């Protein structure tokens, strides 16, 4: 099945348009952090439907959009699936060590509070 | 002059009440980041009046409150001055390397965009 959706390009900031405050805002939500932590554990991409978050579908879509528009993730349509991947290369080039230290902090907190992914 | 204000204790989260999402939210605002970067360059405390931010006084007060309530800074009254200090010990104990990597990222962005403190 070919639909308009399949070929739609989603808007992403270029590397030099990514801002630290946008990244930190994107990562300041527990649901979005959960998505980012899952993406960080995989080499490839994960579909939106892979994630079952305890929020509505529209809220889930909102969270992915915030992550995409801040430059944290890249979203592409592959067939009917919207696939998500961390923009690790861009983030590491702009802010070396930042993503890893945030992921480490999230892992520590999840371990401490017992609310890990 | 002795006033009630002088002895008022401001509410702070204990170390184990500090949450990563609160820290990231607090740091996701450029004005608050400016305050944190200035505090990071001093060993001691800085008064609120030290900071001249391009926002109203009430907005400035709001920013300091967000930083305090998230656990990023400690605020104490000394005489008539409200003094501010980074809670570096608490942050480094909870999330080793996080504060430094965020400060490094902020410095890189300020250098790149030419909007340093």
Describe the protein in words:
- Two copies of one chain form a homodimer.
- By secondary structure, chain A is mostly helical.
- Chain A has a single domain (18-102), classed as Arc Repressor Mutant, subunit A (Orthogonal Bundle), CATH 1.10.10.
- Chain A is built from six helices and three strands.
- A three-stranded antiparallel sheet of chain A has the order 1-3-2.
- In chain A, α2 (20-27) runs antiparallel to α4 (57-70).
- The longest helix of chain A has 16 residues, at 98-113.
- The radius of gyration of chain A is 14 Å and the shape is globular.
- Chains A and B meet through α2 and α6 of A and α2 and α6 of B.
Percentage of residues in helical conformation of chain A? 40-55%
Classified in CATH, the superfamily of chain A is Winged helix-like DNA-binding domain superfamily/Winged helix DNA-binding domain
Total discrete domains of chain A:
1
Rg estimate of chain A, integer Å: 14 Å
CATH topology of chain A: Arc Repressor Mutant, subunit A
The arrangement of helices and strands of chain A along the chain is HHHEHEEHH
Alpha-carbon distance between the two ends of chain A = 34 Å
Tell me, what's the shape of chain A?
A: globular
Query: In CATH, what is the class of chain A?
Result: Mainly Alpha
Identify the CATH architecture of chain A.
Answer: Orthogonal Bundle
Describe the biggest sheet of chain A? 3 strands, antiparallel
Q: Number of helix segments of chain A?
A: 6
Subunit organisation of the chains: homodimer
Strand portion of chain A: 5-15%
**Could you report the average pLDDT of chain A, rounded to the nearest whole number?**
90
Pair with the biggest interface = A-B, 24 and 24 residues
Task: Kindly name the structural category of chain A.
Answer: mainly alpha
Quantity of strands of chain A, as a count: 3
Strand order of the largest sheet of chain A: 1-3-2
Given as residue ranges, the uncertain stretches of chain A (5+ residues, pLDDT < 50) are 1-6
């Amino acid at each position: 099945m070919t639909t308009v959706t399949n070929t739609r390009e989603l808007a992403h900031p270029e590397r030099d348009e990514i801002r630290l405050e946008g990244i930190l805002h994107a990562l300041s939500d527990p649901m979005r952090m959960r998505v980012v932590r899952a993406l960080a554990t995989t080499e490839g991409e994960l579909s939106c439907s892979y994630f079952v978050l305890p929020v509505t579908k529209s809220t889930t879509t909102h969270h992915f959009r915030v992550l995409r528009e801040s430059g944290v993730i890249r979203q592409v349509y592959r067939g009917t699936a919207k696939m998500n991947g961390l923009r690790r290369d861009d983030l590491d080039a702009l802010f070396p060590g930042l993503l890893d230290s945030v992921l480490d902090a999230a892992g520590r907190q999840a371990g401490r509070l017992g609310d890990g992914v």
